[in-house]
Amino acid sequence: EPYRVDVVTIFPEYLAPLRQSLLGKAADRGLVAVGVHDLRQWTDDVHRTVDDAPYGGGPGMVMRPEPWARALEAVRPPGTRLVVPTPAGRPFTQAVAAEWAAEPGLVFACGRYEGIDQRVADWAASAGPVSEVSIGDYVLAGGESAVLVMVEAVTRLLPGVVGNRESVEFDSHADGLLEGPSYTRPASWRGLDVPPVLLSGDHAAIARWRRAESLRRTATRRPDLLAALPGDALTPAERAV
Ligand SMILES: Nc1cc(-c2cccs2)n[nH]1
Fold this sequence. Notes:
Order of helices and strands: EHEEEHEHEHEHHEEHHH
Bound molecules: 3-thiophen-2-yl-1H-pyrazol-5-amine
Largest sheet: 5 strands, parallel
Strand content: 15-25%
Strand order of the largest sheet: 2-1-6-5-7
Helix content: 25-40%
Structural class: alpha/beta
Number of helices: 9
Radius of gyration: 22 Å
Distance between the termini: 48 Å
């Protein structure tokens, strides 16, 4: 029973990468099943209209509800989470990705920046969970790029998709901290040397050094993550720094 991902969009060709590389292998191995659906298939006028002017005025266009309801009724298995990318959404985080990876699958509704008629999300809630999520505080022209991001973040957490399980468990953000620097050969490169501890073979010292680098980088680049850590995440010694 592969993890099922369905995407409804007016730019189906934009989602072609979902069949490539990391996801491609996973799809070939039956771990993930991807369906991409053109919203216009569910329009009923000769011009295949999907959007209209916003009630209350304002710039841009809003996507009409009826084509969306028909598409979702056709595509969304009962109980499956509907994900709606939007700059006005709750943050999509590694923790959210892990939660969704534990479910049977996802349906994504790709809207335009001005949005989809709100009644679609309200109506869809009767057939399963609905998550309006943001992948960051910047504005895209449409949800398609956000879907590519979220599908990659979620499917790489599925068992068997990423070869080396450890590399997933030691991701940045997995322990709430940023990953520190990585190095490989040569030991000395253009006058720059790899930190000697990494060549020492002293695995306890290496683990300590890596933890310290991770904390330092998190404090420097993402103090917000540090503040959000649970009370027992840092040892008293680490908190004192
Ligand atoms: N995080 C985020 C999502 C979006 C859009 C989703 C749909 C249209 S624009 N912009 N930024």
